[in-house]
Design goal:
28% helix; 5-stranded mixed β-sheet; alpha+beta
């Protein structure tokens, strides 16, 4: 059983939503991932409008009474735009990715490339994809997207995602089995032996278990 934390990103008078299993990593957020091919829905939740996958909206109805789908928005319409990330209150760019799944979380993923192998490799894939950079006019914008060190663990030190990807020889975001294995190793090491760095505000020096 997984317990997700729902994060809300202010976007164009609405909120893009992303679910995370690791709320303590919000300090390392650099961008959001959406599937360009996916049609997301806009759901009215109380006084707010949330953007999420249709599947996520359906699941949310079991937890909240006042959910009403009022509109749809295509993933590609949001790419290249910016949303304000919670906790860090910084505008982060919305980028395309193939690994997002409408049935997992909200179908929108917040990216922490320092500590999440999927995020690091997806960023690398985009940088090397001239066609994609041109299609969404991302060439200049993506230069500012750099991993932010947030956790130091015994086994992997800081910025573990890049290290484990090199060690395991992972070359693209299509290598799902390897990426899943890498993710579990990093998360386990971070959770059990990790300490929050000075990029994490009031949580600096705290054990990851406590910060989470």
């Amino acid at each position: 059983k997984h317990e997700y934390t729902l994060l809300k990103f202010e976007y164009d008078g609405r909120y893009m939503t992303a679910a995370t299993l690791r709320p303590e990593t919000v300090f390392g957020q650099t961008n959001l991932w959406v599937d360009p091919e996916e049609e997301y829905v806009v759901a009215k939740v109380g006084d707010e409008e949330w953007i999420l996958s249709e599947e996520a909206a359906e699941k949310l109805k079991y937890q909240k009474d006042d959910i009403e789908v009022i509109d749809t928005i295509k993933g590609e319409e949001m790419i290249g735009g910016y949303a304000t990330a919670p906790a860090i209150h910084r505008d982060i760019i919305i980028l395309p990715a193939s690994f997002t799944d409408p049935d997992v979380g909200t179908g929108i993923v917040t990216s922490v490339p320092s500590d999440a192998p999927y995020d690091w490799i997806a960023l690398k894939d985009i940088r090397e994809n001239e066609e994609l950079l041109e299609k969404y006019d991302l060439k200049d914008k993506i230069e500012d997207v750099e991993p932010i060190s947030i956790i130091d663990s015994d086994e992997w030190g800081i910025n573990p995602a890049e290290k484990i990807i090199d060690k395991m020889g992972i070359e693209s975001q299509d290598e799902e089995e390897k990426l899943e294995e890498a993710t579990q190793k990093i998360y386990k090491a971070g959770f059990h032996t990790g300490t929050m760095l000075d990029t994490c505000g009031e949580y600096e020096g705290m054990r990851v278990q406590q910060a989470k």
